[in-house]
């Protein structure tokens, strides 16, 4: 960016790691994420001609369109940016043209919500530009609308809420029905523990594959057959009334995962990290066997992490690829990383990226 191209606004929004609660958000359930240090930065400069020019440091070339963009018109990474313009204008806000520069160190396709970081940072920047006056909840809801209706990814609202509500040293217990956010201490680093993200390199694309949408439909069908609005209201006893084996297993994952979220949230302030690790392992088994959203790379990453000294490990994110997380003593970081890399090498897979994360601040201006 040259001095003559100085931006009018600059914002940043983080990715997130989900400690517990996969595929519970669109079932009106509970999730327990935290914002991470890695974030996406958006710099913006107003234009007078009604055009959008979008440039990313991580992508080749510049994408150009207009503020009159409609769903399906802009695809790929730039669709998340164009989608924010569409959503703001659809809500009645006058969005002028703009040049946007995007930079990010949130790994893409790893289940760390790089898309929510991009849409939330862009929403905040364009909210300033248009004078829309959105609060944190409004920013999260608009960013979700972009993912669902412009990009076509049928995700829930967890990622966006985590990105805008993050606090250093704290996780967020989010009730996705009421959209209430309770901050809980998650100072595992102070207790001598670490949380490692293991990026398997098996990329997932939730808007492109049909499996994620199929899981959502299965959950909705299971709730309907049981006579409930959402699986949030189903108990384990209710599951016996489901004659369909696949639907019963899908529902069982959501019901037990909600319970694991609440149990894990209750443990965060106690320092009982061994119990948290055990919940991690139970969650991964449920996603692997009942919800069937894991893959070979994720299963190997989790088992190798535990063999190397982790207290527990689980896939995190939407599944079908992406990342696993492992909870371990800080003294075991080297052995866990070595164990995972050795296991991947034995399978002939590329070396996984391993990085430590901790709860960090949410989105805001630069």
What does this structure look like?
There is one protein chain. The protein is an alpha+beta fold. The chain folds into two domains: 3-177, Ribosomal Protein S5, domain 2; 184-357, 2-Layer Sandwich (Alpha-Beta Plaits), CATH 3.30.70.890. 37% of the residues lie in helices and 24% in strands. It contains nine helices and twelve strands. Strands 1, 2, 3, 4, 5, 6, 7 and 12 form an eight-stranded mixed sheet that branches. Strands 9-10-8-11 form a four-stranded antiparallel sheet. Strand 3 (51-56) and strand 4 form a beta hairpin. Helix 2 (114-130) packs across helix 3 (136-151) and helix 8 (296-307) packs across helix 9. It is globular, with a radius of gyration of 20 Å. The two termini are 16 Å apart. 51% of the residues are buried.
Q: Report the portion of residues in β strands.
A: 15-25%
Which stretches are low in confidence, meaning pLDDT under 50 for 5 or more residues running?
none
Supply the number of helical segments: 9
> What is the CATH topology of the largest domain?
Ribosomal Protein S5, domain 2
Short description:
The chain has nine helices and twelve strands.
Q: Which features does this protein show?
A:
366 residues; alpha+beta; Ribosomal Protein S5, domain 2; 2 domains; four-stranded antiparallel sheet; 9 helices; 37% helix
Task: Describe the secondary structure blueprint for this structure.
Blueprint: E1 9-20, E2 30-47, E3 51-56, E4 62-66, H1 77-90, E5 97-104, H2 114-130, H3 136-151, H4 158-165, E6 170-175, E7 180-185, E8 193-199, H5 211-226, H6 245-267, H7 273-289, H8 296-307, E9 312-316, E10 323-329, H9 333-346, E11 353-357, E12 364-365
Parallel strand pairs: 3-5
Antiparallel strand pairs: 1-2, 1-12, 2-5, 2-6, 3-4, 6-7, 8-10, 8-11, 9-10
Helix pairs in contact: 1-2, 1-3, 2-3, 2-4, 3-4, 5-6, 6-7, 8-9
């Amino acid at each position: 960016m040259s001095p003559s191209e100085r931006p009018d606004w600059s914002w940043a929004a983080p990715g997130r790691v989900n400690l517990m609660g996969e595929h519970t958000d669109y079932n009106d359930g509970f999730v327990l994420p935290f914002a991470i240090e890695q974030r996406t930065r958006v710099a913006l400069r107003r234009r007078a001609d009604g055009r959008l020019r979008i440039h990313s440091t991580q992508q080749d070339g510049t994408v150009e369109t207009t503020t009159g963009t409609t769903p399906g018109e802009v695809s790929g990474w730039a669709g998340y940016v164009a989608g924010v313009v569409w959503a703001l204008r659809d809500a009645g806000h006058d969005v002028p043209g703009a040049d946007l520069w995007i930079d990010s160190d949130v790994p893409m396709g790893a289940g760390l919500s790089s898309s929510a970081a991009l849409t939330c940072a862009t929403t905040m920047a364009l909210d300033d530009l248009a004078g829309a006056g959105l609060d944190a909840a409004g920013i999260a809801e608009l960013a979700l609308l972009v993912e669902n209706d412009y990009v076509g990814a049928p995700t829930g609202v967890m990622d966006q809420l985590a990105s805008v509500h993050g606090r250093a040293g704290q996780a967020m217990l989010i009730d996705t029905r009421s959209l209430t956010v309770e901050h809980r201490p998650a100072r595992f680093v102070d207790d001598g523990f670490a949380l490692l993200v293991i990026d398997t390199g098996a990329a997932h694309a939730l808007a492109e594959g049909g499996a994620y949408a199929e899981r959502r439909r299965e959950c909705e069908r299971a709730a309907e057959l049981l006579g409930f609005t959402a699986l949030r209201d189903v108990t384990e006893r209710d599951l016996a009334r489901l004659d369909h084996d696949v639907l019963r297993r899908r529902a069982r994952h959501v019901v037990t995962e909600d319970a694991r979220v609440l149990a894990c949230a209750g443990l965060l302030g106690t320092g009982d990290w061994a119990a948290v690790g055990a919940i991690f392992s139970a969650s991964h088994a449920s996603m692997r066997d009942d919800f069937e959203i894991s893959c070979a790379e994720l299963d190997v990453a989790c088992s190798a992490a535990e063999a190397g000294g982790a207290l527990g490990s689980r896939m995190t994110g939407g599944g079908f690829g992406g990342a696993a997380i492992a909870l371990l003593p800080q003294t075991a970081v080297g052995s866990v990383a070595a164990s995972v890399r050795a296991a991947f090498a034995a399978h002939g897979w590329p070396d996984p990226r391993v990085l430590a994360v901790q709860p960090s601040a949410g989105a805001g201006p630069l």
